[in-house]
């Protein structure tokens, strides 16, 4: 079994790399709640795996990483971890002191790596898992940003026309002293509303109250579950989010199962890794059923959240004893599905932006010019 350098020789080597406490802020209780960007964690685990494979003791390797880490707070934490390692503690115990930085799934994988003597391989798997999850998250954010752009652009164009253009036409219509079409009246009334002082005062208050109530509701257990369930039912976006959740879950399952972690514990780690409460509830029910002796495929199908393909492939994996292999294939398939869906959604959104903006501008222009057409008809 390979040694990872928690010996006295490692401690001697560690002393060659003095900790720069005089240039870094002292780690206090708030450091336990510090959050580190996923990019920094990816670099940390990837480089640490390479250092271990090169035969460098673990504590010394972490000190080397801390000296080259740009994030000073994270560098200080690395120095503290190295100090604990040199005193004989295991890496998993050291990292568990910082739950906001190193989640349960990471600690569980490292514990398995320490027990099996494959810590370097496990660290590389953790880096790959972080990288894949960050990629999926980035793709989802890229897809969801288009509707926000459309909504923002539509509101901006509408307000600009109603505030600056429509009032000028209103003066002209008043001088004409003619009966205005219903659409024109509606547009003029809307313009008066958005240019009034009451609108400027009340609209931010109403938006603020709505966001406050929404945030408080989402923080409740039932609120988060209901809204997360609703998200999965939204056309186009719901299926995209579900695919991303499945891809992330299967990726996590593969990594954990390959590290020799028991199935129930694997599912518990998947719950911690998921961001959707409906998915979490489904996995909780599955854990209870698996503990009672039920097959995983049947347990996951109880709540009817996951696609039938997932249930079928997991069933085959259980029957053939190749559950890890099947979950890996599912992860690969759904990651490709997410990429394809994001690409298709992006292409569909481009003409939609043009249609929405053109529709808003066209409606306002028609409303403003209808009275003129009516006057021309009367004159003829």
Automatic annotation (TrEMBL):
Residue span, Type II secretion system protein GspF domain: 44-167, 250-371
Gene3D superfamilies (UniProt xref): Type II secretion system (T2SS), domain F
Location in the cell: Cell inner membrane; Cell membrane
A GO biological process held by the record: protein secretion
Gene Ontology CC annotations of this record: plasma membrane
Keyword Glycoprotein included in the entry's annotation: no
Listed transmembrane segments: 43-65, 143-166, 186-214, 352-372
Topology class, membrane: Multi-pass membrane protein
InterPro entries xrefs: GspF/PilC (IPR003004), T2SS_GspF/T4SS_PilC_CS (IPR001992), T2SS_GspF_dom (IPR018076), T2SS_GspF_sf (IPR042094)
Main localization of the protein described in the UniProt heading: membrane
Keyword entries, A-Z: Cell inner membrane, Cell membrane, Membrane, Transmembrane, Transmembrane helix, Transport
Region of interest (Disordered), ranges: 1-29
Similarity annotation: Belongs to the GSP F family.
UniProt name for this protein: Type II secretion system F family protein
Lineage, broadest ranks: Bacteria, Bacillati, Cyanobacteriota, Cyanophyceae, Synechococcales
């Amino acid at each position: 079994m390979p040694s990872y350098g928690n010996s006295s020789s490692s401690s001697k080597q560690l002393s060659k790399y003095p900790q720069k406490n005089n240039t870094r802020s002292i780690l206090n209780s708030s450091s336990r709640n510090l959050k580190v960007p996923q990019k920094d964690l990816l670099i940390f685990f990837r480089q640490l795996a390479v250092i271990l494979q090169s035969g460098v003791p673990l504590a010394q390797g972490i000190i080397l990483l801390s000296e080259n880490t740009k994030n000073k707070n994270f560098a200080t934490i690395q120095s503290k971890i190295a100090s604990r390692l040199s005193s004989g503690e295991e890496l998993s115990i050291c990292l568990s002191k910082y739950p906001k930085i190193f989640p349960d799934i990471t600690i569980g994988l490292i514990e398995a790596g320490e027990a099996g003597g494959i810590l370097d391989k496990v660290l590389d798997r953790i880096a790959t898992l972080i990288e894949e999850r960050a990629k999926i998250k980035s793709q989802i954010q890229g897809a969801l940003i288009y509707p926000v752009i459309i909504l923002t652009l539509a509101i901006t164009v509408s307000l600009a026309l109603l505030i600056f253009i429509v009032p000028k036409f209103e003066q002209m219509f008043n001088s004409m002293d003619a009966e205005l079409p219903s659409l024109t009246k509606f547009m003029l009334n809307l313009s008066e509303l958005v240019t009034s002082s009451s609108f400027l005062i009340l609209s931010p208050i109403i938006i603020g109250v709505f966001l406050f109530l929404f945030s408080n509701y989402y923080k409740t257990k039932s609120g988060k579950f209901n809204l997360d369930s609703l998200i999965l039912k939204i056309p186009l976006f719901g299926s995209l989010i579900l695919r991303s959740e499945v891809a992330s879950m299967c990726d996590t399952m593969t990594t954990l199962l390959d590290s020799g972690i028991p199935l129930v514990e694997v599912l518990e780690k998947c719950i911690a890794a998921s961001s959707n409460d409906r998915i979490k509830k489904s996995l909780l029910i599955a854990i209870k059923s698996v503990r009672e002796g039920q097959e995983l495929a049947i347990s996951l199908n109880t709540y009817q959240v996951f696609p039938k393909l997932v249930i079928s492939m997991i069933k085959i994996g259980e029957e053939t004893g190749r559950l890890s292999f099947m979950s890996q294939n599912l992860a690969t398939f759904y990651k490709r599905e997410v990429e394809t869906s994001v690409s298709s959604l992006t292409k569909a959104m481009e003409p939609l932006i043009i249609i929405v903006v053109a529709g808003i501008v066209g409606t306002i222009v028609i409303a403003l010019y209808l009275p003129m057409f009516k006057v021309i008809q009367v004159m003829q």
